[in-house]
Every structure is written in structure tokens, then in C-alpha cells.
Amino acid sequence: MIKFKEIRKGFIDTLPIGISVSIYGLVYGVLGGKAGLSVLEVAAMSLFVFAGASQIAAVQMLALGSNPLSIIITVFIINLRHLLMGASLSPYLKEASFKIKMVSAFFMTDESYAVTYNHFQKNKPSPEYFLGSGLNIYLLWGGAGVLGCIFGAALPSQFNFIFDFAFVAAFIGILVPMIKDFPVVFTVIASGIISLLGYTYIPGKWYIILAGISASFVGLVSENLIERSKSKSISQEIFSNEE
Amino acid sequence: MKSDIIIFILGAGIATYLTRFPLLVIARKKDIPKSLLKYMGYIAPSILTALIAPAIFINKGRLDLSFSNIYILAAIITSLVAYFSKNMLISVITGICTVGLLTILIR
After folding, report:
1. Shared-domain flag, residues B64 and B20
2. Is B38 contained in some domain?
3. Sign (positive or negative) of CA dihedral A52, A21, A215, A221
């Protein structure tokens, strides 16, 4: 039995964040159009891929003339974080059927995950709620992309040079709020240096994947080092208290 | 639609779905190595940086750290706005307006 009431509740609870997603979707649509994609292509990407940052990345790589395989790998790597979100929701959905989990998984986004996880803390978990939340983002993201693409086409072409920077600005808008602690700062610096070196010395667009994979190690290692030095200073404190 | 775009969209769609369902359907969190979970948390900022760093610092195929590279100043201003507003649309509008203004000023 599918609980439609739960689908509706998930959908409605997600509206506030869905509206900000649709603004982001407008930006995606404009950039997609400026990169030379048709409205149909912009919409198809939202319908089949349905993952914000990776779609904007893909649009930029298409504009740069990257080969499809390297774009697919980049999209995959950017979206690996979905594994984390899936793992964090799975304990709440143990009772749910395999089928509805497979369906609702397709609609999982950063935003629907956040809304659903929050809801599950205080309410009875249901896969339908999760699905409803995802459907909200799916509709708003898809619709906004199409509108953005149409609107972007109406902008005069002498503004095109500005849109080269719009990609950069869009990513800064996503990236900066992610920088919350030192390991992320080190990751960003490392990735900047590696990508610039890679851009200069490695043919093609493989520097994106190389920097993405190797700079994440810098983040992991620095997090472990910081944790170790913290626990060391705590043990020193305990030790000096004992004295 | 061009065939390479169709291939790309289908491939990227399948690749993305492969990140969405596996751990939701099967594993429990404790079955995944802790360091792998930590590692995955750094991937998104890392990739996003790799996508924009060359766009900012490379000008006509060469590293350009001079003041005449207006993207550097525009990126700094956009980052500050992104930090305080936490809003992507405002960041984008600030960014493109800054580039527009700087281009006019330098001309």
C-alpha cells in the first residue's frame, strides 16, 4: 500500500527549500543555454541525471569540449556523496519494500535528504515521505531549468562574455558555504594547485578528476592529523592535571 | 539532439543512479570504513575547486596572477558575497556584474 498522504506531506514540507532550488535551477538553465544546449537537452539532463552541481559541471565541461566519458566520470565522482546520504537514511527505511526504496532513491537530492532526515528524527519514517520530498525537488528543478534556458536565449548575445564568469560565480556560491573547517580549506587549496598544474601539464580535461581525487586525500589526512593533535593535547592536559 | 549528448545524458544518469541506491537499499553505516566516509565528504569541494581554479587563474592558456586578470578580483568579491549571503543567485549576480563593471573600467 502506498501512503499518498505521506507523499503529499513530504512534498509540502519541501516547498520552502524547493523554491531556493528553483532559483538555482534557473541559473543552470541559463548556463546550459549559453553553453549551446537546446531546451530539450537542458530538460533531458534534469530528467535523467537530476543532480544540481554535477549538471552545472557537465554543462561547463561540454562547453569546454570535454569527451563524454570524462564528463560522466566527473559527474559520478561529484555525486558519490549520495552514497553517504543513502547510508544515513537506510536505518530508517529498514521496513520499507525494496521496490519503493529503488524508486525513491532516484529522487534523492541534498535537499530532499536534509528535509527527510530532519523529519525522521521526530516522526515515524516512511519511504513515501522521502519520495514526496524528492518529487518536489524534481519538478521545481526540472521546470526552473527549462525556464532559465528560454530566458537565457532571450538575453542579448553581447552579454555572453559575462556568462563565462557566471559558471565560476555559480560554483563559488556552492563552494564557499561548504568551507566550514581547516581540512576543507586545505582541500580547496590543494585542489586549486593540483588543477592549475594539471591544466598546464596534462592533456585533456583529466586534471579535474585528478585534482578531485587527490585533493580529497589532503582533506582526509589533515582531518586525521588535526584530530590526533587534539587528542594528544587533551591527554597532555589530563597528564599535567594528574601531576 | 546530438548523439554524443544523448550518450552523455544516459551515461551520467546511470552513473548518478549508481551513487543513489546502493547504500540506501543494502548497507548499514557501520559496514562502510570510517575513513572512506570521511574521504567522500571532501570530494565535492575538491571537484568544484578543480573546475573553477583554471577558469579564474588561467588566461589565454597561461597562468596569469597579475592585476590585469579581472577574474581574480571578481572571484574574491564573489567569494565574500557568497560567504555572507549564503545565496547562490546573489553570488552569481554579483559575480557577473563585477566582471561587467571591471571590463568597462579597464577599457
Report:
1. no
2. no
3. negative
DSSP line for A50-83 = --HHHHHHHHHHHHHT--HHHHHHHHHHHTTHHH
Over chain A (243 residues), the average pLDDT of each successive run of 10 is 91 88 89 92 97 91 87 90 83 89 94 89 93 97 96 80 79 88 96 95 83 93 93 73 55
Q: What is the pLDDT of residues B15-55, one digit of tens each?
A: 999 999 998 887 555 666 788 878 888 888 898 899 899 98
Lookup: cell for A104 = 525513491
Specify whether B16 is located in the same domain as B49: no
Q: Domain residues for B6? A: 1-30
Q: Tell me the C-alpha to C-alpha distance, in Å, between residue A17 and each of A89, A115, A204, A233, B71.
A: 19, 8, 37, 41, 31
Q: Is residue B54 part of a domain?
A: yes
| Same domain, yes or no: B100 and B58 | yes
Q: Nearest by CB to B16, which of A54, A101, A218?
A: A54
Q: Is residue B66 part of a domain?
A: yes
Please write the tens of the pLDDT for every residue from A16-26.
Answer: 888 878 888 99
SS3 (DSSP) at B2 = coil
Cell of A235: 591527554
**Rounded alpha-carbon distances, angstroms, from residue A131 to A53, A79, A107, A120, A203:** 21, 19, 7, 13, 42
Pair (B73, B49) in one structural domain: yes
Q: Is A78 on the interface with B (CB under 8 A)?
A: yes
- Asked if B21 and B53 sit in the same domain, the reply is no
> Could you give the number of structural domains in chain B?
2
| Interchain pair B75, A80: CB under 8 A | no
Cβ neighbourhood burial of B100 (10 Å; 0-12, 13-18, 19+):
middle
In a domain, B35, yes or no: no
- Candidates B3, B17, B18, B20: best to mutate against A (most CBs of A within 10 A) is B20
